[in-house]
Amino acid sequence: MKLRRSNADRQIAGVCGGLAENFGLDSGRLRVVWVLATVFTAFAGVVLYLALWYLMPEEPPPAPAFDPPPLQPWKKSA
């Protein structure tokens, strides 16, 4: 599984949601740990978050749940 920012589980940019999905963690707990680590490391977590926001690609949007109608309905599809 490739590390990506989450589209569904996001508060700011989806970094914590993507990390939680990738490592099988609860995203709420990860956010709390991230904030605590940021406070106790002189706000180094903010710099790391911004770097991950820039470096991690965004998750592709989900595929549509329906088949679109054919563009030329008079033609039979193969």
- Structural shape: elongated
β content, as a range? under 5%
Structural class: mainly alpha
**Main sheet attributes: strand count, strand direction, barrel closure:** none
The oligomeric state is single chain
Number of helices: 3
Which bin fits the share of residues in helices? 40-55%
Please tag this protein with its features:
0% strand, 78 residues
Structure description:
By secondary structure, the chain is mostly helical. It has a domain at 15-55. It is 45% helix and 0% strand. The chain is built from three helices and no strands. It is elongated and about 65 Å long.
Give me a quick take on this structure.
With 78 residues, the chain is mostly helical. The chain has helices spanning 15-23, 27-40, 44-55.
Question: Topology of this protein?
Answer:
Blueprint: H1 15-23, H2 27-40, H3 44-55
